[in-house]
Structure formats: C-alpha cells, structure tokens
Amino acid sequence: MTHYWLFFKRSFDMYLIVIAWLYVVLMLAVVQDSLIRAGILLFFLGFLPTLIVLRLRRRRIRRLKNPDGEF
What we know:
Largest sheet: none
Number of helices: 2
Strand content: under 5%
C-alpha cells in the first residue's frame, strides 16, 4: 500500500507541474501580438513538450507494471 501511495504522489506532482507549465505558456500566448505567433507558441512550447513528457511517463508506468518487457 505504501508503494502505491508514493507512486500516486509522484504522479500527482508531475501532473501539477505540467498544468502549471501549460498555464505559463497560455499566459505567454495571450500577450502575443498575433494569433499566428500565439498558435506557434502554444504548439511548440505547450503541446509538444507536454505530449513528450506524458508519453515518456506512460511508457515508464507500463514498464513498471509489466517487468518482463512485453506491452
């Protein structure tokens, strides 16, 4: 039970950091002078890094759940 709680707490902390990062990127996009620049900023600083981080995290979780290497 303790191991599960620590895993949940680490996951929650990671998601909290991702939400904060997306908020900062959104505020940066709001102050841009054109919609094109705001969209590019949201994509390259918001969507792409978040997608990469969440995919790596999901891969790690799958690997921990199934230690023999099969997905």
